[in-house]
Amino acid sequence: MNSPRRVQHQQTDRGTIPVYATGVVEQPWDTYTKTDHQVWGQLFARQREVLPGRACQEFLDSQNALQMTAEAIPKFSDLNPILKATTGWELVGVEGLLPEFTFFEHLANRRFPVTWWIRAPEHIDYISEPDLFHDLFGHVPLLMNPIFADYMEAYGRGAMKAHGINEQALLNLTRLYWYTVEFGLIQTAAGLRIYGSGIVSSKGESIYCLESDAPNRIGFDLERIMSTQYRIDTFQQSYFVINDFEQLFEATRPDFAPIYDRLADRSSIPARETLESDRVLHRGTREGFSTDADT
Ligand code: PHE
Ligand code: CO
Fold it and tell me: Which strand ranges, in their side-by-side order, compose the sheet holding 216-219?
């Protein structure tokens, strides 16, 4: 039975989240059921149909290079040699969301924690916490990109530092992760594309983020993002667009200590707002937005 072992709950700015065993676990590949492999296959095939022309080419190419297919749930032990040889990253199996500091330590050491269990068929379209499909299909391909790979490591180190500063600094960094790693868009010569893992692993949001008139699409601005609230219960109300991964890496290279100080004096920006100072690529109509407050 592939049910995760839930050990405790943690109160964060995102509400109460389950936190699992902190240890690394061996991917229990032999225990995956036929249904588990089918869920993977169904989600894989569906996303690979939606994503060409929507996800950035690096994402699709890297997924191919990793030889992920709809056939079966990939083995971490098959992916690791390819990842290792390309950017030095390594996948480690986990039960689910880790305590923040443990997660950051993994990133800082070029280890990406991947939840070993996959969602049940009745939750094929939506689950409220990351599973194997989100982590593996969504996050792992871009770890093959050298610049993105460096960004993720730098993020891990920066977050360990922020953890030792204060709650506010950590919240600023959590927002950055959310609007880049999870929900980022990228401007390419071929058009606007997705690179965020939270989007590429969701059929609905893969289409919505690019094609709906409702959400804002705003040019990347580090400090702006770091003070922007976000939603965990709906599709995003604003997406931020980078020009390339270099921009992301360069913008985050400076020491953030003075930035945290500066941001501490500013009030945070609701997810649906646009500002005078924004480079607005699309101003959202807000159609269908719920009226309740952001997280
Ligand atoms: N440069 C940041 C700091 O000094 C660290 C960081 C790197 C944060 C990449 C986010 C992303 O804190
Ligand atoms: Co994620």
Answer: 191-194, 185-188, 238-242, 216-219, 280-282
Q: Could you tell me the CA-to-CA distances from 211 to 134, 265, 273 in Å, in that order? A: 22, 36, 19
Does residue 91 carry a pLDDT above 70? yes
pLDDT in tens, 156-212: 999 999 999 999 999 999 999 999 999 999 999 999 999 999 999 999 999 999 999
Model confidence at 244, in pLDDT bands (50, 70, 90)?
very high
Domain count, the chain: 1
Q: Distance between CA 111 and CA 106 in Å, rounded?
A: 5
Give domain status of residue 49, yes or no. yes
Provide the mean pLDDT of the chain: 93
Token pair in block for residue 94: 């986990």
C-alpha closest to that of 79 among 121, 29, 35, 45: 29
Q: Decide: pTM greater than 0.90.
A: yes
Instruction: List the residue whose alpha carbon is closest to atom 5 of ligand 1.
Output: 158
In this prediction, residue 128 carries a pLDDT of: 86
The CATH number of the domain holding residue 118 is 1.10.800.10
Residue nearest to atom 11 of ligand 1 (CA): 155
Using CB distances shorter than 6 Å, the residues near ligand 1 are: 154-155, 158, 161, 176, 252-256
Domain that holds residue 278: 6-282
Give me the residue label for tokens 């009030």.
Answer: 267
